[in-house]
Amino acid sequence: MGRIFDYLDSRFILKKPHSDFLERPIPQNLNYFYCLGGIAFTLFLSLLLTGILLSVYYIPSEKEAYASIRYIQEQAYLGWLIRSIHKWSANLMVVFVFLHMLRVFITGSYKSPRELNWAAGAMLFLFTMAFGFTGYLLPWDQKAYWATEVGTAMAGTIPILGKPILYLLRGGADISDLTLIRFYSLHTLWFPLSMFVLLWAHFHMIRQQGISGGL
Amino acid sequence: MNDKRFYPDYLFEITVVILLTLGLVLILSLLFPPVMGRKIDFLAQFQPMPEWYFLWLYQMIKYFPGNWAFVGAVLIPAAMFLAILFAPLLDRSPMLSIRKRPAAAIAGAIILIAVILLTLLSY
Q: Could you tell me the domains of chain A?
């Protein structure tokens, strides 16, 4: 290569890390069942993108939530499609996270030294379910209200701690505006940020430890 | 000798899987778009129904009425989650094949069948 390119690369050091990344060997004896986790992650990215788009119009308030969903559904350009993609990605993500876990369980891939990566995965599964639960309330319709009523009441059945936990979840004795804002905050800020940390840990450990059975 | 590389071999496979996934999502989204739910009406009769992946839990709490609600609503789901979280510590043999891990296979199958059965019962 020319001297200018060589000089720039000697200072930026771009070629080596990139070729280390791009040309790294990949285990050959992987089958289609090893795609499941990647599909779940693709769906997560789809949810992230459509979720950010939905947040442009959605209003997390008792008075306006339902109307803002109606606006997304009927007025906003392609709003119905963005909402549809968000909903389908969410349902499929639950399916694929579950199938991915089942694959890892059957191939025994969670065994030492990958036990912490399995734990990170179990937490990702829990957050996926929690995303589903909190997202279900946001349209603020009849179905959402009563599902959250039943779901949060379940936490209230815990002896002694039940009532404080119930109040923490609902922001009071009953489901109200406070519950909606709380769930919105969890669904769009706390949970995504937790997912980023867990996903980073999950992928970092896969890179460092290699794929079980494949190496 | 392993000559499968991230680029171009693996990257190609990932791209195909991503496109198929997004294609599936798009087809389902176009064919079955969401509809507006009913407005909240406290006077109307309504049967609460959770998302399909919580149906098993919704069904299970029916078997624990009154003071026992705690067992079905929190204790059993929490125990199931802890069993999954600590699976690598419970299943310590070096065997990888599911056929050589009968205890793990049976425990996993029990949880799986229970969840599927409860989901079916909830309909």
A: 32-104+115-205 (1.20.810.10)
